Amino acid sequence: MRKALVRAWMAARARPLLGYLADLEKSQWLSADAVADLQLRKLRATLAHAATQVPYYRELFRTEGFDPASVKSSDDLRRIHVLSRETLTTRFADLLADAAPAGRFVRSTGGSTGRPLRFAVDTHEMMTRSAHIHRSLGWLGWHPGDRVAYVWGSDIDTREHKGWMGFARDAFMGVLWLDAFTMSRDRLDEYLDRLERFEPSVVIGYPSSLHLLAQRALETSRRPRLAGIECSAEMLMPQVRADLKRAFDCPVLDRYGCREAGVVAHECMDGSLHINAESVVVESHEGELLLTTLNNRAMPLVRYRNEDLAVLSERHCPCGRGLPLIEKLQGRLSDIIRTPGGRLIHGEFFTHLFYGVSHVSRFQVRQTRRDHLEIRLVATDGFGPADQQTLERAIL
Predict the structure, then answer these.
(1) Which helix (H) or strand (E) holds 288?
(2) What pTM, to 2 d.p., does this model score?
(3) What would you measure as the largest C-alpha separation in the chain, in angstroms?
(4) How much is the CA Rg of the chain, to the nearest whole Å?
(5) CA distances from 361 to 224, 357, 377 (A)
(6) Cβ neighbours around 51 below 10 Å, total
(7) How far apart are CA 305 and CA 288, in angstroms?
(8) Could you read off the pLDDT of 98-130 as tens digits, one per residue?
(9) CA 68 to CA 61: how far, in whole Å?
């Protein structure tokens, strides 16, 4: 009954998402050439929008003599100067569209590099990101309305799960939210109990946090029934994948993305990491990823260097999807910090710690002993005692 109500609610209130999801379900099976043609049409529209509506690109395209109408393939992007994280920070206002669509809102990210920054998205962009996630979960057999559990900790994502409204929404949508930032040995047992009672179809989480659950499940001979696991936000190492499969006896797929561009690629059941080509163009410049977003009209990013490393592939996946592939990710890994009291703190905690501190341009966290944590900051003008107290309170 709940699943039927969820699907009816989505049909009434989330029709654009379901429509885009239906389009994605079809476009994934297009030939590689047809996918490239679809992507090229969206790229031209994005570049035309950027040239007329975004001050930064008006200036850049004029200076470089770049005409969006001349674009014949994604290779023509090489004529455009790369957008760095520093430029995104210093030229933030100029990267906003003049007539940004209604619903634009600004989000923050610390990223895996330790450099906080802001970016803007619109409601259409957020809807298409959700549709891509729904498509990838479908590769594990999940359908809208099926139960899903998260082992996650992002402040941005956690907000909607807090309070009585969040509890009611999660109960209706079939969502179990397990905080990855407050784990301990006792909490691992609690989380395994809750997973067994909740019986989600799939679990989405940080590989390192899921690995802790898998190790505890193996120690206690407990095995929640799952259709699949999708890992995100850090490198999925081979041993972690093997332990997750051994503990939970289900497929384990990877996904790659960043806050600025959304989910960039998902792994299929044949082990290939497929790029979401309907929403992003991916280049590899000397190993560094460059991302061009295709749906965000509030702040389109063109050739954005997110400072992650990857190798692209020209091969075709045996699954039959025409989406291009990332052969290998080389650039993100989060560790678990262990406190003297036994808490297990995911490395992403420190990334999100700096969301509310605007006067830090870079940070680094090092744990040399269990009782010694060192946080190094590159502070900008305006950083003061109040900022330091905010950080210290959160850590202690």
Answers:
(1) strand 288-293
(2) 0.82
(3) 64
(4) 21
(5) 42, 10, 8
(6) 18
(7) 7
(8) 976 666 777 766 555 556 678 999 989 999 999
(9) 9
